[in-house]
Design a protein that fits this description.
Strand content: 15-25%
CATH topology: TIM Barrel
Largest sheet: 8 strands, parallel
CATH class: Alpha Beta
Number of domains: 1
């Protein structure tokens, strides 16, 4: 057996626009509902949700039967966490709160076997189809998506150097934490936040670096993709659910006679 091609890795490398969704419900059943919507990519979030390894595994399994590539955001840039997620067969990772070239190098190294990195070797894992993939060790580096998340002004100032780290697939800007870092806590759509993001993003785009983000506004997501962003998540499953049930209740209450 051969390792499957990761369409998301190759699509962003070619500059093909990719629309995504954030997944935080921690349920394989909910993930399966999302998996067949047609999104190009999704992020199974372990940083800001109660996901553990078992729930993450179930969601990876739910997405595996779809065309949506589900990458995982670990709770931290930790080689032990990364090793376990790679062995679970995560086709890509998005590393939160990276603030230096050295931290980006560690992130990449955690996904690579020696001598290129520090990933521990295990043979019979889900990633290798339990030892059945004959080309896994020779191809996994080329197929795995490694996204570096910048969430502070200091990190953004180093964006070009961080993006140049060998093995980095793309740069992701986290507007909520950037807003907090520059004194705009709770204002991820503040113009100052996006002036900072867009200035750095355009420099990276000019160098051919794929850039992405998460926003909760469909129109703004489309605008960013039209301005050169390569991969943009346009919502979160929990937000979609909350807004949907709120709107449903309100529509019924509005029609009830006093």
């Amino acid at each position: 057996m051969k390792l499957a091609r990761n369409p998301f890795t190759h699509a962003i490398a070619k500059g093909e626009k990719q629309v995504g969704l954030w997944v935080s419900l921690t349920s394989p059943y909910a993930a399966e509902v999302i998996a067949h919507s047609g999104y190009d990519w999704a992020v199974i979030d372990m940083e800001h949700s109660p996901n553990e390894y078992t729930s993450t595994l179930g969601q990876l399994q739910a997405f595996s039967d779809s065309k949506t590539v589900a990458i995982v955001r670990p709770e931290w840039n930790n080689p032990v966490i990364v090793k376990r997620l790679m062995d679970l067969g995560a086709p890509g990772l998005i590393f939160p709160m990276i603030n230096s070239v050295e931290e980006a190098e560690l992130a990449v190294a955690s996904t690579r076997y020696p001598p290129r990195g520090i990933r521990g070797v295990a043979g019979a894992t889900r990633a290798t189809k339990f030892g059945r993939l004959t080309d896994y060790v020779s191809r996994v580096d080329d197929e795995t998506t490694v996204i570096i998340q910048l969430e502070t002004a200091d990190a953004i100032a180093q964006a070009e150097d961080i993006a140049a780290v060998d093995g980095v697939s793309g740069i992701f800007f986290g507007p909520a934490d950037i807003a907090a870092d520059i004194g705009k806590l709770g204002q991820p759509m503040h113009p100052d936040v996006w002036d900072l993001i867009k200035t750095a993003a355009q420099k990276l785009i000019a160098k051919g670096v794929p850039v992405g983000t998460l926003v909760l506004d469909a129109d703004f997501a489309a605008t960013l993709l039209n301005e050169g962003f390569t991969f943009v998540a346009c919502g979160m499953d929990v937000s979609v659910l909350a807004k949907g049930v709120d709107a449903l209740l309100a529509s019924v209450q509005d029609k009830i006679d006093d």
